[in-house]
Amino acid sequence: MPAKNPQAKKPQAKSNQAKITQAKNPSAKGTQAKDPPAKDPQAKDPQAKDSQAKGSQAKGPQAKKPQAKKPKHTAFTVAVSAADDGTSAPALRVYVAMATDPLAAVAIVQALMPEAAIELSGTLSDRLAARLKLKPGEVRPI
Hints:
Layout: H1 16-24, H2 46-59, E1 74-81, E2 92-99, H3 102-112, E3 117-123, H4 126-131, E4 139-141
Antiparallel strand pairs: 1-2, 1-3, 2-4
C-alpha cells in the first residue's frame, strides 16, 4: 500500500458555511458566485412569443390577408330557342357565356332573353375560350 502524502491531497471543496456566505454576499473574498440571469416577468418562452406574434399580425390593421384565388371561369354553351309561333320552324341559337358554374351561365343568358326557352348544352375548351378572348360574364352568339 502506498504511503499517504498529506501534500498530495486535492484541495477540498468549500464548506457549506462558506458557500452560504458567498451566495449572500457575492463580493466576499474568493470567486464570485455565478448568478443565473434574472428572469424578466414579461419574458415568456420562445414558442409563446411566436404564437403571440402570429396572433397580433392576424389581428393588426397592417396585416395582409392572403388573397383568395379568382374563381375559374368556364365557357358554357347555352341553347336558346325563340318562342314557337307555329307557322315556321323554331329558331335555335347557341350562345357562349363565361361563368364560374352552369347555373350562373344560364342565369346570364336568361337575363338577356327572358321570353326564350333556354337550355345548357355544353362547354368550350379553355383553349378555345382563350382564342375567342371571352371575358368573365360575357355572352356571345356562336
